[in-house]
């Protein structure tokens, strides 16, 4: 089933949208089934889970962190994480940078933008994002590369509001991408990825639909 699900989703996404499989709540066997179909990019939302996965799964997996990251936990993932999609402050970016340099690495980062109606979802406002980029440009941050933006829409079936939230994020991405050399717009999950892709997403983070 996992193989069929991945094949179907890949076909819908086409070549220009990257699939990152969200493996939270899944067993090692389930993740290996996805791996054996050729899937290499996986994401977890918790630092401890990411560390455990790294230890038990093949070393050529590209790991993304998609959940809120506390500064004091950066050190645990800095040796191996490929992309931190949940960067929401300059301070955190600085800490990731220092940890990356200590390991002689460059860690890809996405700035998480708050697009949902919901209070509890993390992220920067568009203005905070613009300000962060300007400040980051004045610091020496050679251990991180800001590849783009990430956002989570409101958990709703309302297609119009999903479209409004994704289009808003896509507009911010278009505004910033050339000046800041960005290439990644991460938006869309199992329930809303088709709309996200229509709105310009080029990276989707899908869990439930892959493992259904
Ligand atoms: C869990 C999660 C996903 C995947 O959600 P599904 O509905 O299972 O596809 C995507 N992004 C983030 C940030 C998540 O926490």
List its salient traits.
eight-stranded parallel β-sheet; binds pyridoxal-5'-phosphate; about 210 residues; alpha/beta; 9 helices
Fold blueprint:
Blueprint: H1 2-13, E1 18-22, H2 28-36, E2 41-44, H3 47-56, E3 62-65, H4 74-77, E4 83-87, H5 90-102, E5 107-114, H6 126-137, E6 144-152, H7 159-177, E7 184-187, H8 193-198, E8 203-206, H9 208-211
Parallel strand pairs: 1-2, 1-8, 2-3, 3-4, 4-5, 5-6, 6-7
Bound molecules: pyridoxal-5'-phosphate (PLP).
Concise synopsis of the structure shown:
It contains 9 helices and 8 strands. With 212 residues, the protein is an alpha/beta fold.
Description:
This protein is an alpha/beta fold. It contains nine helices and eight strands. It has an eight-stranded parallel sheet with strand order 7-6-5-4-3-2-1-8. The longest helix is centred in the last third of the chain and has 19 residues, at 159-177. It is globular, with a radius of gyration of 16 Å. The protein starts with a helix and ends with a helix. Bound molecules: pyridoxal-5'-phosphate. Pyridoxal-5'-phosphate (PLP) binds at residues 22, 24, 45, 66-67, 152, 189-191, 205-209.
